[in-house]
Amino acid sequence: MPADPSVLESMKSLAIDYEEMACDPALADTAQFCEAYGVPLDRSANTILVASRKPEGTMVACVVLATTRLDVNDVVRRKMGARKASFANAEQTRDVTGMEIGGVTIFGLPTSLPVWVDSRILECDWIIIGAGSRSAKIKLDPRQLGGLDGFEVVEGLAREPSG
Q1: What pTM, to 2 d.p., does this model score?
Q2: % of the chain surpassing 70 pLDDT
């Protein structure tokens, strides 16, 4: 089973309709996946953990389109109420989620971890997200995410890359 069973169970409990796609683990990183499987970058979404550094101890999972950049130093930091925040490293991400980079997703996370969804994602008719492992991806209609318990749609969470 390529997708993490806890991710599929979480999606089932939330009544999320989805399609599971097998993925070569060596091609799980966004750019390689999109190129190998013909998925447009603007339909691929990344789940990124952010940790507060001052004060320490707060984490949030943010999901943004691959064509945008998470606004960690302004929007995320302020919304977290932190003076400093940074991307969680691979070890922190694995410790908190149980998932490897390239497979991190917004489902099956600890209930204490808020999920913030960039509003641009809800404008898509479908997106590809991680499946909790590097061996699968999930295709779903992102409009299903609006109103889920623990999920918050955030305007301006990501920005267009400059230059």
Answers
A1: 0.93
A2: 99
